[in-house]
Amino acid sequence: MQFVGKILGFILGYKFFGGFFGGLLGLIIGHWGDKKLYELGSVSSSIFGKGLTRQSLFMQTTFAVLGHISKAKGRVTENDIQLARNLMTSMKLDTSQQQLAQKAFTLGKDTEFPLRKVIQEFREACGQRNDLLRFFVEVQMQAALQDGSLDQKEQQILFTIAETLGMSRFQFEQMLAMVAAAQQFRSGYYEQRTYQQGNSQQGHYQQGYGRYQQSYSSGPTLEDAYKVLGVSASDEQNTVKRAYRKLMNEHHPDKLVAKGLPPEMMEVAKEKAQQIQAAYDLICKVKGWK
């Protein structure tokens, strides 16, 4: 997190503008300066090169990880390639950007692709901004679920990404359920099938990954809506509303772009916000909440 400008701004404001309120003015100016330095600053990657913008690093990391996940099942299928192309199309990448995305996708398919190192560098470049990092994980989950199935190898890669970005197993499982449920507000219906496996020899109990498979229904259900917001049917209106507002704030496209999201991915962010809005509207309609 950038804070040098805030500290200097407060000190200079306090000294030159007269006491505490002058310091507050300097703090505001310093905050604006930190924000601009963050937006304009360049970052480096051991894989993608030096002098990158955060938006370029976000885009290349996204497609590299997509390539890595696609390779997890043994070989990259034509469907995997088409999904990557569809994302490029939805982002409206120009020719040079498409070439970078294709190169990153190919790098990700390499068996020696250093996933943890790439994600750690990405985390540091993003200044550990949690909402931007969460959005990155959601993009990967959503892309992995597009083909209607998510096997254990794919889930293990997704968990490695989430863990490296500072998420716990519980947070990962909750997010995966939220993203899978949100797919119902796009196309198709995903049902979570979890299993648990005991290990008597080692004397401990191990939680297994859920498996998501695609089936079809007439439309989104109330249960889907609760999962999208990360709440339960027993939660009160205020709790649901707080969860909704928090998610909408985290997925605000303009805020995400300011923190490093490529402008080309604004449509992805808008679509996610629409899913959250649709889930909240469904809950309010069924519950009769105003």
Structural features, described:
Helix content is 64%, strand content 9%. By secondary structure, the chain is mainly α. Strands 3-7-4 form a 3-stranded antiparallel sheet. The protein has a two-stranded antiparallel ribbon with strand order 1-2.
The best one-word shape is globular
In terms of quaternary structure, the protein is: single chain
Count of DSSP-assigned helices: 13
Mean pLDDT equals 76
List the helices and strands and how they pair.
Elements lengths: L3 H13 L2 H22 L2 E3 L3 E4 L1 H18 L6 H14 L3 H15 L5 H11 L4 H15 L4 E2 L1 H13 L4 H14 L6 E5 L2 E4 L4 E4 L3 E5 L6 H8 L7 H14 L2 H7 L6 H22 L3
Helix pairs in contact: 1-2, 3-5, 3-6, 3-7, 7-8, 9-10, 10-13, 11-13, 12-13
Fill in the keyword field for this structure.
three-stranded antiparallel beta sheet; two-stranded antiparallel ribbon; 7 strands; mainly alpha; 13 helices
In short:
By secondary structure, the chain is mainly alpha-helical. The chain is built from 13 helices and 7 strands.
